[in-house]
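Contributing new complexes? Match this layout with zinc ion.
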Amino acid sequence: MKILGIETSCDETAAAVLEGKNGRIQILSNVVASSASLQAKYGGIIPEQAAREQIKSIIPVIEEALTLVFPNHKPYTTNHIPPIDAIAVTYGPGLIGSLLVGVETAKVLAQIWQKPLIPVNHLIGHFYANWISPPTSYPQPPTFPCLGLLVSGGHTDLVLFHSHGKYTYLGGTRDDAAGECFDKCARLLNLPYPGGPQISKLAQKGDPKRFQLPIPMKGNKSFDFSYSGLKTAVANLIKEKGGLSEQDKADLASTLEETIVKSLIEKVILATQRYKVEQIMVAGGVAANQKLVRDLKLKVQSLKLKVKLHVPPPHLCTDNAAMIASAAFFQKPINDPFSLQADPNLSLMI
Ligand code: KG4
Ligand code: ZN
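Output block (do not edit by hand):
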């Protein structure tokens, strides 16, 4: 079974073909075109511009993903039907202009190629990056029950998965997401967008103990997160100092990364112990942060928890279409593809 995945929820235009065979889900092609460098010029995403870039890229990206797998595929010919079994598409949440490009394209392709259409929630899609098998090794995908931490630019959520499609929402951010905090603080430090990888790189040269920042929701026993206070604390610290040397910036980046990572780990451990889970998966762009992965592993070891930790490789943490196709292997197609509507506010709460 081969599924074509399409993802256009934000500033990445992505298409991928995945194959499910002998219980493994593998990537046959995975193409991502990003307008992030264009958005970086303006310090963040301009939704109108992101949507225009989506329109430019969507067909070439899909055609590239298909021709990489099917060399006989004739691009740009509607009467040449690729040998895929279904089309999966992100229908929300995200920027409405960007989402519409992917959803409407997928609907038309499903119609003219007569393929089933599988709508995927982008947030659920992030988790399913953990079900993709690497090309040469055979790690076991997560088993249930499994605790899921989603950390991306727009979301910080804790979810307890009971089985495919069945989960309990435990909590989420009350204001800014963890990735948003990285991005906004990077801007305060004059670092380019997206800020997470930039902060992380700079942090390696810094001293995480030099500045004091409050750990968000420390000691709070709920599964909610909050990062806007941390961003304000960083803004105040920069104002108080009047100007930052290169070393100040590195020390602040290091403290910020450590603070965000500590707050995430505290909640993950709290949920692991409360729900007695033995499987944890992390997903979303911030899961590409190596300090988060390293420190979470260390914490699990130091507490002697009997837990298996799943984290996708960094290129499958940030937005991509492989994760969308992967999720679709566990879902059913929609009866009437033309009834599908993009939903910018789609959430994990059901
Ligand atoms: O999942 P994603 O690609 O897009 C959304 O669905 O939001 O996540 C993007 C977020 C951005 O906030 C970016 O700064 C953050 O992920 N990010 C990182 C790292 N790589 C990406 N944050 C911290 N460390 C990283 N290495
Ligand atoms: Zn995402």
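Reviewers usually confirm one structural detail per submission. For this one: The beta strands are 2-7, 12-21, 24-34, 86-92, 117-121, 146-151, 156-163, 166-172, 279-283, 308-310.
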